[in-house]
Amino acid sequence: MNDVTRRSAIGAIGSAAAWLAAPGVWAQAFPNKPMRILVPFPVGGIVDIVTRAVVEPMQANLGQPVVVEPKPGANGTLATAMIPQAPADGYNWVMATISHVVVPHLQSVPYDALADFQPVALVAVATSVATVNPALPVKTLKELIEYAKANPGKLNYLNPGNGTSLHLSAELLKNQYKIDMTGVPYRGVPPGIPDLLEGRLQVGFLPGPLSIQHVQSGKLRALAVLADKRLATLPDVPTFAQAGFAEANVVSWYVIAVRTSTPPPIVERIHASAMKALQEPETRDRLTKAGCEVPTPRSPADTLAMWKADYARYGKLVQEAGIKGES
């Protein structure tokens, strides 16, 4: 080993030892400039609203601005693909949704959804409700499945986009219980609502806030809630688990993520900031109004385990159900 090589090796060992011996130094030095969070979907949409609700209070305890940059396109992959290209220093984040682990099964993406990203903080889960047109003679999820089995191919459901959590909810129910329902495609939920209310569609998995107004008015009937607990606004409607169908529950999550190899102390610094923001009443109120719940806290490692499980689960569903990407 020559002198240059020896000095390089000693320097590398010294740097590693310093990091291991004093990881707090990284967290104390971070951040010393503004950060940014990329939003893979349009301004004003649910992902944008959730992102702003969480990161705005984070700025105070981080001591630096967090700039929200919506960059929609390519089914959410345009923004996501920018993270593996950025430095692994904690200054570039993305708000990952369930699409992060679904889209790679539907189309080619320029990154590895698991290997290239480090989930930092699970900050919200969206609530949704399984509803039917009141003309359909079913009042429970069990009765819906029984009716579908007795009437194969006669039920149509609202599909707001292939690979969305609402689409997956219907397809997972079909796949788990071997029932035949036809998805009718729309560009989002709102365009399909008139057909659901007028009975041209019989089934709709809808976002919580949107479903509540129609259920309370009697225009739709709620069968079950896709959430960990009942909604305060629909106290008589059970969750999927309470109805006996936990294995068909789709959890639509929102996770702040950074590039893999970001130093653990920095990951923990961002995670702690997010957890603190979620304790603030204003943050929780904004998320509730957006149709989301504050989830039970998870460590970055636990969130990564959730990602891996969902990646495998929905990959299997996509293959078995023959789900295709949007054309």
Instruction: Note the total helix count.
Output: 12
Mean pLDDT: 91
- Kindly estimate the percentage of residues that lie in beta strands according to DSSP: 15-25%
The top level CATH class name of the largest domain: Alpha Beta
> Tell me, what's the shape?
globular
Radius of gyration: 22 Å
Distance between the termini: 58 Å
Class computed from helices, strands and strand pairing: alpha/beta
Please name the CATH topology of the largest domain: D-Maltodextrin-Binding Protein, domain 2
The major pleated sheet works out as:
6 strands, mixed
- Name given to the CATH architecture of the largest domain: 3-Layer(aba) Sandwich
Helix content: 40-55%
Tally of DSSP β-strands = 11
What is the CATH superfamily classification of the largest domain? Bordetella uptake gene, domain 1
Poorly predicted segments: 1-23
N-to-C order of helices and strands: HHEHEHEHEEHEHEHEHEEHHEH
- Tally of separate domains: 2
Biggest sheet, strands in spatial order?
2-1-3-10-4-11
Pfam families: TctC
Family: Belongs to the UPF0065 (bug) family.
Protein name: MFS transporter
InterPro entries: BUG, Bug_dom1, TAT_signal
